[in-house]
């Protein structure tokens, strides 16, 4: 999963308070045609749904913190799936 893309989606969401993350993902996809495949979007929605609170806290701490947390969570999810 591309953590830069995920961060950009959270940035879009922050710019529109109260908006659902799914809408923010759709806006990102509209602005960046072909950047996120249907399968990647599904994976991101599931990931955001599972880790939304942790990711929101990490987002407030800055991009580096957000990307680090997202990478750790993604690795833990992959390990648990195996």
Report on the structure:
- 80% of the residues lie in helices and 0% in strands.
- The chain has 82 residues and is mainly α.
- The longest helix is centred in the middle third of the chain and has 23 residues, at 38-60.
- The radius of gyration is 12 Å and the shape is globular.
- The relative contact order is 0.17.
- The model has no long low-confidence stretch (mean pLDDT 94).
Main attributes?
mainly alpha
Helix fraction, binned, reads over 70%
Q: Which structural category fits the helices and strands?
A: mainly alpha
Succession of helices and strands: HHHH
Mean pLDDT: 94
- How would a textbook summarize the main sheet? none
The backbone outline, from C-alpha atoms, is globular
DSSP strand (E) fraction? under 5%
Number of strands: 0
- Helix count equals 4
Oligomer: single chain
Distance between the termini: 17 Å
In short:
With about 80 residues, the protein is mainly α.
Blueprint (SSEs and pairs):
Layout: H1 3-15, H2 21-31, H3 38-60, H4 63-81
């Amino acid at each position: 999963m591309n953590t830069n893309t995920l961060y950009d989606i959270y940035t879009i969401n922050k710019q529109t308070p109260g908006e659902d993350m799914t809408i923010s993902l759709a806006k990102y996809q509209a602005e960046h045609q072909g950047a996120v495949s249907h399968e990647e979007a599904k994976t991101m929605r599931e990931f955001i749904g599972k880790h939304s609170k942790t990711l929101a806290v990490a987002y407030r701490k800055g991009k580096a913190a957000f990307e680090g947390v997202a990478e750790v969570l993604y690795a833990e999810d992959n390990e648990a799936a195996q």
